[in-house]
Each structure stands twice: as structure tokens, then as C-alpha cells.
Specification:
The chain contains 8 helices and 21 strands. The protein is α/β, with parallel strands linked by helices. The protein has 2 domains: 130 residues, Sandwich (Immunoglobulin-like), CATH 2.60.40; 277 residues, Alpha/Beta hydrolase fold, catalytic domain (Rossmann fold).
């Protein structure tokens, strides 16, 4: 009597950093057998996220996600990491969701399963042929997480493993407020002492009396840390974090980074205006913001056209550090590409254009995250000035946006290494 060999599923590695690839292989299938590869994640917000691809086994009864074509599903074609970057909320979930890791000391747990046939729904109600649990980490083993509450500064410092000292980074997120740690944890996993800074709380933009000294004190906390190389510090910003970063490096004489990485931002008004949003800008917002056919809010036009009056924008001609701008040409939240063009012209006229590098990605939106993060074209958002709840349109399309995240992250790490890193400094490994 012949014995049926059970279908096997392997995911290598099963434990990795979120920006590392894995290899998913199914074996012991009948030849030319249709199967569905499925990824399932239960978020910290208690929502199910999933991705899936349809495959047909080869003459050996094997499917390799990295080498074979997905014929349908949440992604198509040869996509080694499609089971992660194409994740979306399970049908019937709440609207406007965004997947973000809050507790970085634990991994994202992703169940990879293979099902018989090409199926599109009801995965959790069916029994898979095989399943593997994978761990996706932002924080590598040995990375130290240190809460910072000193001199009025609130944030979290992530220190790489090893004797150090390491290059330092000031990491600032955008206008949603709060403290987000996952990018800093990942940067520390790549050998950078990164401080994730909380510089206002949600809904406090109008009342927050934030001065440039707050950021100067923060920069000095990083600089004075014994595990940081004091003359090898950079700034990393996204959205409002980029607005703040550009302002700081153009205006402050006490903040002297080697380089800045600026994602999806602009230079169009001084820091005080950016953080407190004066009445003039608020009036323009109400006049120019509009909604698409899905009732998603489009905000980019608030800051268009780019002003010609120098008093309405940061004088980037004064910037003395290297700066990398990373933008998507379908950003529906801010006019990042138009701002980058103006920054280029201003820095050319100021004689410091050699400090500027710009990356612009097609069909890419505002939220350019680390690799293999799902694409969010529109998500729930609370406008800090009014506390109005909207679904904000960020822009981008899943496949090109995912490609942009992967390519830009690789180039960002290379850029940071070039400007900050010593060849003798140890790097964290998973």
C-alpha cells in the first residue's frame, strides 16, 4: 500500500527583521495542482490583515513564491514578498485602517498557510494543507530600548548591541502626533543609536508652545550619550517631521547634523506656523481642501502654489549639511515633489546644491515606510487643529508604492552609512 506524503511548507527564515526577505516553498503537491498561499496577521488593534496569491505547482509538485508567478490574489506576478506588502484588512473589517507596530519589543506574528485550490475568502474557516508561524521584528536581539524623560524631552532611545560608540539619529514622525518607535528600533537594528522623539501629542497643535530649544536639547541628549559618536549624528523625518528637520538645519546654529533624510515633506512655512497652524493657513485649508469620489480628504492643495515670497518658506540656501529628499509623485497629502523642485532651485541659487540628493518615485504616495509594509492609500485621521475625524487620502498604488519603499530604504541605509558610519563600528545582526 502506498503512503501519501503530506504537503510541506517552509518559510526561511521564520524569524527575521521586517526589512529582510524570506523564501516560501511548498513541496509534495500533485503536479499542476492549484493552491493558494495565504498570510494572516492579527494586529495590536485587534484586526485581521491578510494577503494571498494563487499558484500552480510544477511537474515536481513544488511552488516557490520567489520564483513562480502568482496568477491572482492580492498580488500577481513574481513577488517574493507579496504575502507581506500586499496585506489588507480582512473583508468585513472596519474602514480606514492602518497597520503600525506599537510594541516593538514583540514581533509581528504572521501565519503563512497553503490551501488547496484557488480561493479568495473565508480562509480562517477552512483547514490549510500546511501552515508556518513567522516572526517579523523591528528590534534585533541585543538592541537596548531606553525611555527618555529628561530636560522636558520625551522619547525613546534605541541603542545597537555591542561596545559602540555608534552614529546617532534624531527620528521624527508626522502630524498625527504621539510616539512611534518602530522605525527607530529598526534603525538601531542596523547600527544607529536612534532617538524616536515625541514632539507633541495628538490634538495639541494649537496649544503646544514648542520652541526650537526643545529640539536643540534633544539633539544634545543624543550627542552627549556615551554610546554615540558626537560628530556623527543625522536627522530622519517624515511629513511634519521633515518640515521640522528642514527648519532646524536651516535656522539653528546649535543643531549640526552630518546629514538629513527627509521623506514626504516641504519647506513652506516656519516651524512655529507648522506646529501651531495660524489662522491664515487654517482659513486656506478650509477653502482648498476637497474630497475625492470616496469622500477621502485631499490636503496637498492647501500648500499650492509654492510661494515665491521667501518670507513664507524656510531659507534652505542656509543649509550646510547633506540632505536626502524622498518623495512620491502621487502624494495627495503634501506637494512634496513641487516643494523638492523649489528646494532645488533655492539651493542652486544659494550655492549649496551639492548637498542635495532627491529621489522621486512614480505612483507612490505620502506614507513611505520601511520595506514590505502594506500600502495605505487612505486611512482614518484626526485633524489636530479641529479634532475632525476624516479619512485622509495619502496616495500611491500598492505595487509601485511597495517597490518605492524597498528601493528607498536600501538607498537610505546606504546614504546614512556613507555620511555617518565608521567602518570599525559594529552592526547589529538578527
Amino acid at each position: 500500500m502506498s503512503q501519501t506524503i503530506p504537503t510541506s511548507l517552509s518559510v526561511v527564515p521564520t524569524r527575521a527583521l521586517v526589512d529582510e526577505t524570506f523564501k516560501v516553498v511548498v513541496e509534495n503537491l500533485p503536479p499542476a495542482s492549484p493552491v493558494t498561499l495565504h498570510a494572516l496577521l492579527y494586529s495590536e488593534d485587534k484586526d485581521y490583515w491578510e494577503a494571498y496569491g494563487h499558484y500552480v505547482s510544477d511537474h515536481r509538485g513544488t511552488v516557490s513564491v520567489a520564483e513562480d508567478l502568482s496568477l491572482g490574489g492580492t498580488y500577481t506576478g513574481k513577488e517574493a514578498m507579496g504575502l507581506l506588502w500586499s496585506m489588507r484588512p480582512e473583508p468585513g473589517s472596519r474602514t480606514g485602517l492602518r497597520l503600525r507596530k506599537r510594541e516593538v519589543t514583540s514581533p509581528m506574528l504572521v501565519h503563512i498557510s497553503v490551501y488547496s485550490g484557488h480561493i479568495t475568502e473565508g480562509f480562517r474557516k477552512q483547514s490549510p494543507l500546511a501552515s508556518v508561524l513567522t516572526e517579523r521584528w523591528y528590534m534585533a536581539p541585543g538592541v537596548q530600548r531606553i525611555e527618555i524623560k529628561e530636560k522636558g524631552v520625551q522619547g525613546t532611545f534605541f541603542i545597537p548591541p555591542g561596545p559602540g560608540p555608534f552614529p546617532g539619529l534624531l527620528d521624527m514622525w508626522g502630524g498625527g502626533g504621539g510616539l512611534l518607535e518602530y522605525r527607530s528600533a529598526l534603525l538601531a537594528s542596523h547600527g544607529y543609536a536612534s532617538l524616536a522623539l515625541q514632539y507633541f501629542s495628538p490634538g495639541e497643535l494649537q496649544s503646544a508652545d514648542l520652541q526650537i530649544q526643545y529640539f536643540e536639547v534633544t539633539f544634545n541628549i543624543i550627542k552627549d550619550h556615551p554610546q554615540v559618536i558626537p560628530d556623527s549624528i543625522g536627522i530622519f523625518g517624515l511629513s511634519l517631521g521633515t518640515v521640522v528637520a528642514i527648519y532646524l538645519v536651516a535656522v539653528s546654529t546649535k543643531i549640526t547634523p552630518r546629514c538629513c533624510v527627509c521623506i514626504s515633506g516641504h519647506h513652506l512655512y516656519p516651524l512655529g506656523t507648522a506646529l501651531n497652524l495660524n489662522l491664515k493657513l487654517e482659513k486656506k485649508r478650509l477653502e482648498t481642501e476637497h474630497y475625492d469620489e470616496n469622500n477621502y480628504q485631499i490636503s496637498r492643495d492647501v500648500r499650492l502654489p509654492i510661494p515665491t515670497d521667501l518670507s513664507e518658506k524656510v531659507d534652505v540656501r542656509k543649509i550646510k549639511c547633506h540632505m536626502l529628499l524622498v518623495n512620491g509623485d502621487d502624494d495627495q497629502n503634501v506637494p512634496a515633489v513641487e516643494a523638492a523642485e523649489d528646494i532645488t532651485q533655492m539651493m542652486r541659487s544659494g550655492g549649496n546644491l551639492q548637498l542635495l540628493t532627491t529621489l522621486t518615485y512614480p505612483n507612490t504616495g505620502h506614507l513611505i515606510e520601511p520595506p514590505y509594509s502594506p500600502h495605505f492609500r487612505a486611512t482614518n485621521f484626526i485633524i489636530p487643529t479641529t479634532k475632525e475625524k476624516v479619512i485622509s487620502l495619502w496616495g500611491g498604488q500598492p505595487k509601485p508604492h511597495s517597490d518605492a519603499q524597498e528601493d528607498s530604504w536600501r538607498k537610505i541605509l546606504a546614504y546614512l552609512h556613507h555620511h555617518l558610519y565608521s567602518s570599525t563600528t559594529p552592526k547589529a545582526k538578527m
